[in-house]
């Protein structure tokens, strides 16, 4: 009998027949990811660690070098008995991923090279609710064009552009179905950007919480946790879920909508028009309403959010009863909803982002108490609650990462340079 | 630009290097599943439809025939131009899958051959709450041994045994953490059966709703719907979720616990000791309490459930106001919870099983009204609600299917028969 029976995943009939080209692509990706995850090393060591044979590794590395995804540098003398080998490392310069975040009052762009180094970063202040969709998309297209040009200066071509939007995004066709905080409904962001942009790479549009979850998965403190639930607290509350190492998308890319589940106060009307949505008790507005009177600067949306949250934290630290009471109340309600997510998804980690992360130290105690009492599995079903440390650029980082990941999945997406008769490399 | 950008799944780094043995196994499985899904056909047609070349298909079919998973029968003359080929078909006789269901008052066993035909079926009445875990496992082991013997009579060896339990099952190690309806806590079902059974195949222990979801996925009216939520209404309420064609398991196999999410009446105490669990408003007890007084035969747990549900349906059809009111109330509450699941998972289909299916025609109207108002995505985010038609043997069918699926995934799990010197096939 087998100690650990292979778990059924019901997906077997979807596999394509394996052929030599598929095997080659798989192994090119394997070597490239191995270098990313474990750092520069010799061909011999790659062979030893991946189980591929040495001749295969040499041929794979040669192809990756032709595509300018790796280069071979100094000689490896560490512990070598035979002929010393050259160290192969990721060459991040020729390809980049572009992440864009479209939020209430700004558009942010970040360009990462294949090694994850920042090539370009820009934040444009923009009043999106007043601008409207068409002018906003014009601005986004200009911002992306600027980023592409900046990357081209150092020789990097985009492998993809990923746009994060806080709202209900039908990622299969890139339509923002509903984004109450910017007043959008059924905006075809993907088509709008395609018609405005002259780039030869995939463009994706994605819910911001999904990209935040991916950023955590790729580069957060709990990176590579295969079962992970991410909750971000802002005006609204968003959720992104990683299931068995994959982003949960659902049939139309509309999954993870936790903010409007009926876990709130049935007497309170939400921004979406419904009653009892969870974000009416755990969103930023709910906290600030409970913590301060109308007219209090922490409730002034015209002021900088980070400053207002710092003031809330200051009051809590000073022992202000009203502030502490409001935080306890939000912490408990956060626990009620997080317990539902733990019961449904059985994650290893629940990550809290947005204002939940900033004020997390005051939310944690009531939150954990509620989880202990509401989660069915013993010991909170093995879940830990962790505050995100990625901060406010996480969405664009997640977006850039998604764009780059396609190259790590299939390095042949990056074309081999065409040589002109004089032997110079064409652009 | 690509019309449909490949969706990021974050799982790339887990892939093993592809080698010839892997390719062979993949392609053996591909041919076997092709025959299962599309019926008997010639080698030439398999080659044409799968994209594998003809010589490869011939060699794969020869190996599958040696493992006695396929056989070649009559000549294919349909539309053939060249030499007519023999028709290859699944030969289900040598391998079987065993599904077991362990419920409050019975143990059921079902054996399916590779073609999905029933080889053996038995239901043993058993008062599990009074028997206790050890004696119950003795009885389960006897039932499985009987099934294995029955399969052996026709020459079939088990590819696996899957045991369904209504409760919180940690499928990674086969421990039933909590099963309130049979009074179990931390029962090591997998270890208990391994020590009692003399079978040389994997044994799995699984939450019953997970197996019901798999049964629907494999053989229900909505088979192969990649994003599917299954809800079963019994004494408790269980959930099984298929995400992108895979069963959602979570970190410890504890996912899908919908019954105890806090979507119920906070004043009602649940069987688990908590307040406000969803099953306190949508479980069978909630319906019957609302529909009939204490002492009414429909509330008598000693009577057959199907008879009691038929009586409830009769009263509803006769226009009994109290019964109709109870059904409306349950339908609405079912909608509240189903809306949460649709918001989180964005499934294509929500399948209702157990008593929800039997009385579904009376629940549907209030349920859909609640979904329309609570689901954030327009048009219920594209989800349909469907009543299961698999009936009461679905859990054992799902279990047997899981066991067989491992063979379709990797046909080399079935050994090639060893020939003795006289040329006869050893057992």
From TrEMBL, chains A, B:
Keywords: Kinase, Transferase. It comes from the Bacteria. Coiled coil: none annotated. The keyword Kinase applies. Residues 30-72 form the HTH marR-type domain. The keyword Kinase applies. Residues 1-20 are annotated as: Disordered. One of its GO terms (molecular function) is DNA-binding transcription factor activity. Belongs to the ROK (NagC/XylR) family. PANTHER family: BIFUNCTIONAL UDP-N-ACETYLGLUCOSAMINE 2-EPIMERASE_N-ACETYLMANNOSAMINE KINASE (PTHR18964:SF149), ROK (REPRESSOR, ORF, KINASE) FAMILY (PTHR18964). This is Putative NBD/HSP70 family sugar kinase. It comes from Blastococcus saxobsidens. The lineage of its organism: Bacteria, Bacillati, Actinomycetota, Actinomycetes, Geodermatophilales.
């Amino acid at each position: 009998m087998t100690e650990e029976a292979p778990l059924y995943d019901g997906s077997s009939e979807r596999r394509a027949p394996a052929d030599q080209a598929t095997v080659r692509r798989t192994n090119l990706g394997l070597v490239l990811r191995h270098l990313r995850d474990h750092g520069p090393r010799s061909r011999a060591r790659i062979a030893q660690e991946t189980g591929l044979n040495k001749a295969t590794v040499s041929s794979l590395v040669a192809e990756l070098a032709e595509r300018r995804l790796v280069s071979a540098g100094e000689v490896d003398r560490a512990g070598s008995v035979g002929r010393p080998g050259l160290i192969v490392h990721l060459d991040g310069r020729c390809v980049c991923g572009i992440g864009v975040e479209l939020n209430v009052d700004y558009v942010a762009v970040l360009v990462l090279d294949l090694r994850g180094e920042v090539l370009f970063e820009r934040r444009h202040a923009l009043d999106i609710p007043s601008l409207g969709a068409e002018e906003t998309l014009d601005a986004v297209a200009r911002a992306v064009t600027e980023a592409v040009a900046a990357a081209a200066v150092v020789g990097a071509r985009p492998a993809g552009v990923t746009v994060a939007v806080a709202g209900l995004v039908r990622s299969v066709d890139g339509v923002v179905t509903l984004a109450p905080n910017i007043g959008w409904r059924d905006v075809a962001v993907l088509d709008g950007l395609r018609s405005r942009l002259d780039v030869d790479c995939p463009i994706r549009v994605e819910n911001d919480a999904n990209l935040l979850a991916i950023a955590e998965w790729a580069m957060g403190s709990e990176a590579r946790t295969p079962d992970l639930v991410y909750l971000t607290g802002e005006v609204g509350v968003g959720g992104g879920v990683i299931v068995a190492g994959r982003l949960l998308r659902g049939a139309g890319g509309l999954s993870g909508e936790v903010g409007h589940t009926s876990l709130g106060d049935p007497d309170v009307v939400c921004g979406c028009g419904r009653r009892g949505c969870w974000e009416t008790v755990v969103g930023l507005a709910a906290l600030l309403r409970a913590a301060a009177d109308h007219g209090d600067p922490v409730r002034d949306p015209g002021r900088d959010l980070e400053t207002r949250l710092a003031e809330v934290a200051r009051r809590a630290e000073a022992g202000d009863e009203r502030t502490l009471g409001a935080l306890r109340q939000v912490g408990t309600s956060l626990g009620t909803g997080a317990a539902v997510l733990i019961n449904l998804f059985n994650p290893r980690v629940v990550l809290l982002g947005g204002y939940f992360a900033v004020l997390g130290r005051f939310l944690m105690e009531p939150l954990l108490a509620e989880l202990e009492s509401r989660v069915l599995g013993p010991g909170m079903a093995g879940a830990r609650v962790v505050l995100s440390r990625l901060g406010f650029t996480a969405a664009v980082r997640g977006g850039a990462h998604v764009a780059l990941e396609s190259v790590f999945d299939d390095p042949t997406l990056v074309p081999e340079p065409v040589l002109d008769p004089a032997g110079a490399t064409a652009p």
